[in-house]
Write a structure and sequence with these properties.
Elements: E1 7-11, E2 26-29, E3 33-41, E4 53-57, E5 64-77, E6 82-90, E7 101-105, E8 113-116, E9 125-130, E10 133-138, E11 140-144, E12 148-152
Antiparallel strand pairs: 1-2, 3-6, 4-5, 4-7, 5-6, 8-12, 9-10, 11-12
Length: 181
């Protein structure tokens, strides 16, 4: 007996077929309610929790559907080096097999800002400008991405380099340029 009303979307056996243990019999779906499997990088796993809200969109039809993270795989996929995240979403206009894009509203970081990865010194410091000279200051790295890094631990109002300077060293005299408003 199925746990809910629904539709048989594929039957892999017929009446009178010999069935072995663990053999897949077919697929049963409940139209309008779906489970979506997605992959996330190992480095992003700390930012996703069970119950997090997921906002789904489609390139094919207009609309936004809210879902929820219901399961997170405990095993890493050796081929892709990612974890599987399973989300539930419901919508009468959604169909089995549709492609959806999803944004997980995961862990919120406060008092952080993003800088180019090239500005990070030895993975835990950045150059700031104090009294018109470069000073190396240790920062707490919260998250790496391909091009940027989220850091914390700098005092409010710190002036950080916008781009790296070739041959930069602590004490190098510099003149900050104010950004156009």
């Amino acid at each position: 007996i199925a746990p809910s009303s629904g539709v048989v979307s594929s039957a892999l056996i017929t009446e009178g077929t010999l069935v072995r243990p663990n053999q897949k019999l077919g697929e049963f779906i409940q139209p309008g309610n779906y489970e979506i499997e997605s992959a996330i990088r190992v480095s992003d796993l700390d930012f996703v929790n069970l119950g997090d809200t997921v906002e789904f969109t489609s390139k094919d039809i207009p609309g936004i559907w809210l879902g929820k993270v219901t399961r997170i795989s405990k095993n890493i996929n050796a081929a892709t080096q990612t974890f599987s995240v399973f989300c539930e979403v419901a919508g009468s206009d959604l169909k089995e097999g549709m492609f959806l894009n999803g944004d997980i509203k995961g862990k919120t970081l406060t008092n952080v800002f993003s800088i180019d990865r090239k500005l990070l010194l030895e993975n835990n410091a950045v150059y700031t400008v104090i009294d018109s000279a470069l000073v190396s200051q240790t920062v707490e790295v919260k998250k790496f991405s391909n091009q940027e890094v989220l850091i914390a631990g700098l005092p409010n109002g710190s002036v950080v380099l916008k781009e790296s300077i070739i041959g930069a060293f602590e004490g190098l005299p510099v003149e900050p340029v104010k950004a156009a408003e």
